[in-house]
Amino acid sequence: MKIRLLILSALSCLLSTPFEGAPLPVAPGDFTPQPLVEKTADGFRVPQPGHRFEFPRDHGSHPEFKVEWWYLTGHLFGPDKERFGFQATFFRKATTPASAESVAGAKAFRADEIFLFHAALLEVGSGRFIHTERLARSGWDAGASVEKLSVHVGEARLRGEESQKNRFTLDASIREEGGFSLDLEALKPLVVFGNDGVSRKGDSPTAASWYLTFPRMKAVGEVRIKDRLVPVEGKVWMDHEISSSQLTGEQAGWDWAGIQFEDGREIMVYRLRRKDGTTDPASALAWVDADGKTTHYGASEFKWEASGQWRSPVSGAKYPLPVHLSAPDPATGKTVEWTLQPLANQQELDGAVSGVPYWEGACRVLSAGREVGAAYVELTGYAGALGRALR
Questions:
Q1: Whole-angstrom Cα distance, residue 287 to residue 305?
Q2: Cis peptide, bond prior to residue 322, ω within 30 of zero
Q3: What is the pLDDT of residues 17-47, one digit of tens each?
């Protein structure tokens, strides 16, 4: 559940959403969404429950859906205690439902599908943060296979290894300033979030996704800072989300986190924010245990709040940081509190291509003052509500 598509709509119509400095109350009423329809009004498929996923095919592109993204974040460490955080996201958006002819056609460019790539790299020791955005039409310079995981935008590439299940390679550059090249291996099974394979994002009959995640992957490779190459190892979180509508008209944005604990468990959590300042009842938190089993909690069962804010000198957006999260621990039944503390405040992507800035940052996870894990946090809609960009 991520920013993963702040592109391609009438962004000038977006409304700002200020931070109020207090936890947002959950909107009244239970979350009882409308039944899903099979297609959107413009003819795109809507994710349905009970889908039988097949791999490697479902790691690939789904052109019959309107929006799709492959999202990776991670914490990497060099031999001399260097620490890095990185993000890489490949977005696909269709303007019209794909036909068999357009998918199979060998055109240099397609007018019905576009790709966007975001990458960011934080050098923790210096606080240096670099990022880039690229936009391309589907064709020779951007595309995604419908048979397996193979997506590229320019020289940025994410691929599944042909002979190795759940092994992938990621290569990206951030102009001449840096980049990373990583070999990835899943350390636990793929997780499908949601109810019967569907993650609902609102009460609308189309606001839903298939949400596939490798919550813990081993990464080995190198990071480039200017002309310096640093060998690194670390842990990565990888999402693949498939949808045709991610937000309803009442929603302004979301706060999201992927947390990897030292005890081998993870949390995925998102709080959908309404324009009236309340938390949408579709918000959710899910634990992933050491064996990959999930336990889900609803919006009223966890709290996401912040003790302060950081104001971006670039966009002027006020981001609620650091994050304080509390939720039940399914292993004990007790409520636990954590602080998600940014490794650097300046981790805002400025929206040079998308037009909408957002904060996507590496954080340490603290419990009672002790570091117990690492996280990536995403804060969207603070420099303008997302609105039509995801509907």
A1: 19
A2: yes
A3: 333 344 468 766 678 899 999 999 999 999 9
C-alpha span between 256 and 358 (Å, rounded): 12
CA of residue 212 relative to chain centroid, distance: 11
Which DSSP category does 291 fall into? T
Structure tokens at 372: 């117990």
What predicted TM-score, i.e. pTM, was given to this entire model? 0.91
Whole-angstrom Cα distance, residue 361 to residue 340?
Answer: 10
The residue among 124, 244, 229 whose CA lies nearest residue 180 is 229
Contacts of residue 249, Cβ cutoff 8 Å, sequence gap at least 6? 387, 391
Contact status, residue 93 vs residue 8, Cβ threshold 8 Å:
yes
Question: In one letter, which amino acid is 332?
Answer: T
| DSSP class per residue in 294-341 | EEEEEGGG-EEEES--EE-TTT--EE--SEEEEEE-TTTS-EEEEEEE
- 11-390 classified as CATH 2.40.370.10: yes
Residue 12 dihedral angles phi and psi, to the nearest 5°: -65, -15
AA identity, residue 384 = G
* 260: nearest Cα among 299, 298, 296, 290: 290
The gap between the terminal CA atoms of the chain, to the nearest Å, is: 14
Count of CB atoms situated within 10 Å of the CB of 275:
15
Q: Which residue has the tokens 């995981």?
A: 149
Longest pairwise C-alpha distance within the chain = 58
Summarize the chain as % helix, strand, coil (round to 5). Answer: 5, 50, 45
pLDDT per residue over 370-384, tens digit each? 999 999 999 999 986
Domain borders along the chain are 11-390
Do 286 and 193 meet the contact criterion of CB atoms below 8 Å apart?
Answer: yes
